[in-house]
Design a protein that fits this description.
- The chain folds into 2 domains: 68 residues, VC0802-like, CATH 3.30.2130; 68 residues, 2-Layer Sandwich (Alpha-Beta Plaits), CATH 3.30.70.
- It is globular and about 45 Å long.
- A hairpin with a 3-residue loop joins strand 2 and strand 3.
- The protein is α+β, with helices and mostly antiparallel strands and 144 residues long.
Length: 144
């Protein structure tokens, strides 16, 4: 149920993102979700893709430093208060969210999907599942 997320380290200059996107397009790799965090000198492009192993090897071939991390994909009803309920479970269990980002699911009846990176992913998974939240895996993310 854990999702492999890739973090690619890019120079913070025009064309860096375009180059990565072109590499992925040319190999028919689908981007499911992404976010960018930046500093003045470099950016961290976080990606969830249709084939993380192939993507990591491909980016390495192009001299793009890439790391893989495990994240959780939490499916939430798209209505006020559902994210608060999930974060409250995390807080109640004294777990730390390192970062998070969102996108819309391609499943029928569009729902919000929150991607979470935790300092203790297994404890977070147990806490969320124990409170009835839905975690989704790679198979569900790539449907559609």
């Amino acid at each position: 149920m854990n999702i492999t997320q890739l973090s690619a380290f890019l120079e913070n200059k025009p064309g860096s993102l375009e180059a990565v996107l072109r590499i992925l397009r040319d190999r028919d790799i689908n981007i499911i979700a992404l976010t960018i965090a930046e500093t003045p000198d470099f950016g961290i492009l976080r990606l969830i893709v249709s084939n993380p192993e192939e993507t990591r090897a491909l980016l390495k071939e192009h001299n793009i430093t890439t790391a893989a991390t495990e994240v959780l994909a939490l499916e939430l009803e798209d209505r006020p208060g559902t994210l608060l309920a999930a974060v409250s479970v995390i807080s109640k269990n004294n777990l730390n969210i390192e970062y998070m980002y969102a996108f819309s699911s391609r499943k029928e009846g569009v729902r919000a999907v929150m991607i979470f990176r935790f300092d203790n992913i297994e404890a977070a998974k147990a806490a969320l599942l124990g409170e009835g939240f839905s975690l989704i895996g790679m198979a569900e993310l790539t449907k559609g």
